[in-house]
Amino acid sequence: MAAVQVVVLCVAGAMVCVLLRAQKPEFRPAVGIAAALAALGLILPELEDAVQLFRTISESSGSGEQFRVLIRATGIAMIAEAGAQLCQDADEQALAGRVYLAARVVLLGMAAPQLNGLVQQLGLLMGI
């Protein structure tokens, strides 16, 4: 049901933006950003359910730390994508690029301990 609401909201926002194109073009980015934030607010409850599912799987599998890193990485990627799209909607391509760059740096930092452990395991297997 939330998906239908998001689609209707976004289509309505797009229609308002089209109408504003001729009259008040300076308001178009604000309307687009407001519609995007409202759509994000509509899907947050669905996102909470998905996170709870991942927590349950994590606790039952015994590999909690890896799942926590995966959930955090997924969250960072989703937030960065939403932020970058909002910047692009506001015609701020440079800011969108910095959002993507910041997300990549944070994700690399999160992955560093796992990569270090993997390299150590490979070293042990190869006898180095």
For the residues shown, what is the average pLDDT?
85
Strand content: under 5%
| Count of domain modules | 2
**SSE run:** HHHH
Cα Rg: 20 Å
In DSSP terms, counting alpha (H) and pi (I) runs of 4 or more, how many helices?
A: 4
- Specify the biggest β-sheet: none
Stretches with pLDDT under 50, minimum 5 residues:
none
Number of strands: 0
Shape: elongated
Indicate the structural class: mainly alpha
Q: How far is the N terminus from the C terminus?
A: 56 Å
Q: Please state the oligomeric state of the protein chains shown.
A: single chain
Q: How much helicity do the residues have? A: over 70%
Structure report:
This protein is an all-alpha fold. It folds into 2 domains: 1-47; 63-128, no CATH class. It has helices at 2-23, 28-61, 64-89, 93-126. It is elongated. 4% of the residues are buried.
List keywords for this structure.
2 domains; about 130 residues; mainly alpha
In a few lines, what is going on in this structure?
The chain has helices at residues 2-23, 28-61, 64-89, 93-126. The chain is mostly helical and 128 residues long.
Topology of helices and strands:
Layout: H1 2-23, H2 28-61, H3 64-89, H4 93-126
